[in-house]
Amino acid sequence: MTMTLDALARECRSLLQADGSPAGRAQVAALLGRALRDREFVRAQFAGGMPERKILHEDRELGFCILGHEYHDAREGGPHDHGPSWAIYGQAEGETTMTDFVVVQPAGGGMAGKVRRGRSYALRPGDAHLYNEGAVHAPSRSGPTRLIRIEGRDLAKVARGTYEVVAD
Q: 85: number of CA atoms within 13 Å, CB side?
């Protein structure tokens, strides 16, 4: 049976109500991965195209958001965190190379933090990866990509840290 956006939102809500910890979020990431392996679900979310960032669902009580992202060109993102929130990146189409960073000096007081490059890995269709609070990472896309992300809250309304990469 094909997953729907409403069913995904209901199941995310149920999982997060039962366990809002990183373990519960990991269950949400696994659920998103299953949804992204459902080609009909992916096709339905991106039918007619999508802007780079679109809120598809926002839970009024828990605050989490399900978003669609469509990028047409290559893009290199800088190291960032999600402030006081978490996010799950789910690869729907294309490939994203993600780099994790180790914080050397936290961001704060209007100053950029300092980070060192950690591991890099590919997110491919059906992959979903959880970034908990404070996890610094940067995406890189060599071509068109589509993602479904779940944010603990609408990150467009959250102050987030910026970071400078320092040599190893």
A: 20
SS3 assignment, position 17:
helix
DSSP-assigned letter for residue 157:
G
What is d(CA 31, CA 52) in angstroms, rounded to the nearest whole number? Answer: 23
| Domains, the chain, with CATH or none | 5-165 (2.60.120.10)
Q: Tell me the two tokens of residue 13.
A: 């809500």
Given CA atoms 155, 3, 137, 94 in this order, what sign does their dihedral have? negative
How many residues belong to the chain?
A: 168
pLDDT tens, per residue, the chain with 168 residues: 689 999 999 999 999 999 999 999 999 999 999 999 999 999 999 998 899 999 999 999 999 999 999 999 999 999 999 989 999 999 999 999 999 999 999 988 888 999 999 999 999 999 999 999 999 999 999 999 999 999 999 999 998 888 999 986
3-state secondary structure of 98: strand
At 154 the three-state DSSP class reads coil
Please give the structure tokens belonging to residue 74.
């290559």
**Taking the model in full, what pTM does it have?**
0.94
